[in-house]
Amino acid sequence: ARVIGTSQGAAVGWLERKKMKLALVKGDGELGQASEFGRNATILCEGAASNDQRFAIGWIESDGRLWFVHGPTSAESTTSPPSESLASVAPMRAEWCGVTSAGDYIALFWREGARWFLNMCSRKECTSMVARVPLDPKHALLATGCTREGCLIAFRDQKSNTHLGWIGVTGKKQWSKPLTQAAQSTDISMAAIGAKAMAVGFVSKEGASVLRVSKDGAMERAWADPASTEVPSVAWAKERLLIAIPEAGGVRHEVVQTPR
User: Fold this and answer.
1) Closest Cα to residue 256, out of 202, 244, 208?
2) What confidence tens digit (pLDDT) does each residue in 2-18 have?
3) Which single residue of 45, 83, 187, 194 could bond 58 by disulfide (Cβ 3.0 to 4.6 Å)?
């Protein structure tokens, strides 16, 4: 399932009986009546777009086409369900997909065989330019985070070492660096910090860590917990970074001032 914010509150999206379903979370915690999308949905995209401007959840149909439902997250003068729109891109045959926020755009990633692609979508349309993501077929994509200007990708090489790289919206690689602090085989979490930086959560050799990674490749520690060996989840809003850490069957959270 995917959890997002909408103009009418939190909502949950999931696959059920070949449909992508989307329902608001009511005040009592129960789900409201679900809207249904798709004809023969087979794969729910990794991640979701959910920031203070737009939301999106994506899926792949049995014909390999990538679809996503999207809408605004800003408050609207209506009590109706969140306004939704459908859009799609037409890969030859998508086998995997991912969705993330990119400012007021939506970023779509997908894989066809050994090739990876990126497409940016506005409120009205997806751009005609589909970018090829410069990722070695032998490397595993771990996480993505985007702005209007490009995306940070995290990937793992054949030796289980983690790397970070920034690509433009055309797919051009700006830089790539090994994340030397990361423990081998760690998972990665990401969240955009404004338009020019990302928060990157991972398990380092010294415990749980979060870095602020700039578009130009500069990295600085934003938070660390030497006692934790769990990957922290990250979310950013209003100059503050929310960090959630699994702990003893529950979740502990901290808020860190993190200017854009």
Assistant:
1) 244
2) 999 888 889 999 999 99
3) 45
Owning domain of residue 61: 2-133
Is this prediction's pTM over 0.70? yes
Q: For residue 47, is it within any domain?
A: yes
Q: Starting from the edge strand earliest in sequence, which strands make up the sheet with 131-133, in order?
A: 96-102, 105-112, 115-121, 131-133
- pLDDT at position 75 is 67
**How many Cβ atoms sit within 10 Å of the Cβ of residue 163?**
18
The C-alpha atoms of residue 82 and residue 95 are separated, in whole angstroms, by 29
In a domain, 110, yes or no: yes
Return the percent helix, strand and coil in the chain, to nearest 5: 0, 60, 40
Is the residue at 208 inside a domain? no
Q: How many angstroms separate the CA atoms of 127 and 135, rounded?
A: 21
**Taking the CA of residue 55 as centre, how many other CA atoms within 13 Å lie in the half-sphere pointing to its CB?**
25
In a domain, 259, yes or no: no
Average pLDDT, the chain: 91
Tens of pLDDT, residues 31-54: 999 999 999 999 999 999 998 889
Tell me the C-alpha distance between 210 and 121, whole Å. Answer: 29
Residue-wise pLDDT for 160-192, tens only, equals 999 999 999 999 999 999 999 999 889 999 999
CB 86 within 8 A of CB 11: no
Written as six digits, the tokens of 49 are 């777009």
